[in-house]
Model the fold of this input.
Amino acid sequence: RAMSGDLAVVAKDKEASSKGTMQTQITTDPPRGTRDFPPEDMRMRTWLFDKFREVSRLFAFEEVDFPMVESEDLYTRKAGEEIVGQLYNFEDKGGRKVALRPELTPSLARLVLQKGRAQSFPLKWFAIGQCWRYERMTRGRRREHYQWNMDIIGVPGVEAEAELLSAIVTFFTKLNITSDDVGIKVSNRKVLQAVLEKYDIQPDSFAAVCVIVDKLDKLPREEIESELDKAGVPSVAIEGILQALTLQSFDDLEALIGAESGAVAELKQLFALAEGYGIQDWLRFDASVVRGLAYYTGTVFEAFDKEKKLRAICGGGRYDRLLSTYGGQDTPACGFGFGDAVIVELLKEKKLLRAFPHEVDDVVMALDDSLKIPAAGIASRLRSTGRVVELVIEKGKKMKWDVLCDGFVELWSVVWLDPSFPVFYSAAFSITSQTIVI
Ligand SMILES: CC(=O)Nc1cnc2ccccc2c1
Done:
């Protein structure tokens, strides 16, 4: 029987190899545009996310989370946004049109509506979540990243934006990034709204115009002009719009849209509050900031590196109409998104990224099988005191040299368990860890 069994196995393998169905190696790469996080990368990511959490906690925000898959309906906005054009959407086995979320704000708005007025406003919620986009790999860009979001729901005044900007500055400061390295451009979409009204442009093209002019720093001016033309903006207005976006002082702004405009009042109040927080050095009014999301209605802001080598570090703004577009009541809201990619590039650029070694307090190893049991006991006792203990569990006397020699060898303390005498020798031995127990 065994023989025939073996022969059968051999025959199958022969047949498999001839048919080429031998189990070929699966690719070990992650799907296109996505990343793995092996231990050393994961330690850096954990460090970064802990900073996100530290700041959110300082500002008394509550953590929330949502599914990564949402109904496509949450994102089918018609303003020509890139994020909607690159939706990672599909039909599930139940025929539902779903999408991997490209951002977190719509989920947060959905959860606010779900909880309804039962909760007491203002809500101060934060989330850290993976977001997705599906773009042709022609550009080889990533298809996923993690975003930290902080949102304030239920505060109509710019006090909310001031809190969010202070949180962003607090975060940068915790990473030793200064206002010499990074600035935050602040504007207000009501500037653009006032300009469009001057030219009698319909409010329903406002979102599309914002999405188009947000691309000013990425596309040639002619392309922006032709896109505005296609969006139905008369050419005389195009000049006025592009002119308005160059404003960088409140005086110029007042000259263009009048001192009694809402935008001027809100911006002045926001900058006054910023003085209170002591973050004024980080902020600058810059009418060219529009942001590329259709739902912003008021303040918009984005952090940038002053060497202008990188893309926007984070960005956000006020979105007072989003909840009502989902069928809810008009609810004031504002928030920001902070991606996990550009900030790391900035930290590398500024040499602010430290090493993230695997840290162990003690290594316990039994060099003799008869010591395995007491070694386990020692490891447990050390761990019960909160010490990080690597218990060497592989067979035999092989020292886990990579653990022992990971870091700097200084002779410090080795506690030797001798099977014949329950006596402890102590020689000196220590590597990034305090005690080696053998
Ligand atoms: C620099 C980077 O990775 N950007 C990035 C990567 N993935 C995304 C996925 C969804 C939306 C925006 C995204 C943005």
The longest strand covers residues 123-132. Residues 1-5, 406-413, 421-433 have pLDDT under 50 and may be disordered. The chain is about 35% helix and 20% strand. The CA atoms of residues 190 and 263 lie 5 Å apart.
